[in-house]
User: What shape does this take?
Amino acid sequence: MTLFLLLRGLGVLVLLIGLALFWLTGFGLLVREPTPRRFRIFKLLAWLAVALALIDFLLPLGGLHTNGLHLLYGAVNGALLLFLSGLEPQGWFRRSLPHPPERVGVYLFWGSLIGTLMTLRFIATFTLSR
Assistant: This one.
């Protein structure tokens, strides 16, 4: 179980650093569209956030107690990033919108900032008790 929590913590650290770097290097997204490579990076970070949220929902099965607010922050963060990653050209979320946005770089920029802040709250609310 300790190795599992260590890998989970490493995943949260990678998510936090990845989103912060995406945001800090993404100021250009305010004026131009992201490259396919940036979309792939964002999609990878989104799926990592979803996986971490699902892992935290499974922690009580291992006998560990997690805070309900922590689970909420993880689920909202994962959902936000996953929906924004679907805004890529021919993406699943973009195709489902009746009037998709013409420019999505701005959404990825602000979404990465909000995702970074939500990940910080996700970390701050994590508690374990035996």
Observations:
- The first helix runs from residue 2 to 24.
- Residues 75 and 116 are 14 Å apart (CA to CA).
- The chain has a mean pLDDT of 91.
